[in-house]
Specification:
Distance between the termini: 61 Å
CATH class: Mainly Beta
Order of helices and strands: HHEEEEEEEEEE
Helix content: 10-25%
Shape: globular
CATH topology: Jelly Rolls
Strand order of the largest sheet: 1-10-3-8
Number of helices: 2
Number of strands: 10
Structural class: alpha+beta
Strand content: over 45%
């Protein structure tokens, strides 16, 4: 019985290491998209599992303080080891301000810039298209 439990535990641990790109190297790869005229501010990591319903898709939520008069850039990078394609959305309260995915045209962008017109705490949501399992990192940078 101990051998079976040991094997199961070993398999669970090795599964977590099997997706090697879903770690700091994904953050480094995503940071290469930041221009030399920008300053790195924050990273948002999300690893979400599969879902059975399209009505209640899993979402990773983060809060960030943005200051009036600054231009921010948000980048999203998906790990290649997962089938999910990441979507990053920026909300001011309940109002969607910007997104890396344009639903009507089904166009996927890897980044967007946002000029902040008021100092506030904004919400960053990371989800995966069609609720597929995925791992992603979002990068917040500020233009100099």
């Amino acid at each position: 019985m101990k051998k079976i439990l040991s094997i199961i535990l070993l398999l669970l641990i090795s599964k977590s290491f099997a997706f090697s790109q879903c770690n700091q190297s994904l953050v480094k790869n995503c940071c290469t998209n930041i221009s030399t005229t920008s300053v790195f501010l924050q990273q948002f990591r999300a690893k979400l599992g599969d879902t059975n319903t399209k009505n209640d898709l899993p979402v990773a939520r983060f809060s960030v303080l943005m200051s009036k008069g600054n231009t921010y850039r948000l980048d999203i990078c998906s790990a290649l080891d997962f089938e999910g394609e990441a979507i990053l959305q920026l909300f001011d309260g309940d109002k969607l301000v910007a997104s890396t995915y344009h639903t009507p045209s089904k166009t996927d962008f890897k980044a967007f810039e946002f000029f902040c017109s008021k100092t506030a705490i904004y919400k960053v949501y990371i989800s995966f298209l069609d609720g597929k399992p995925g791992c992603a990192v979002g990068i917040l940078s500020m233009k100099k």
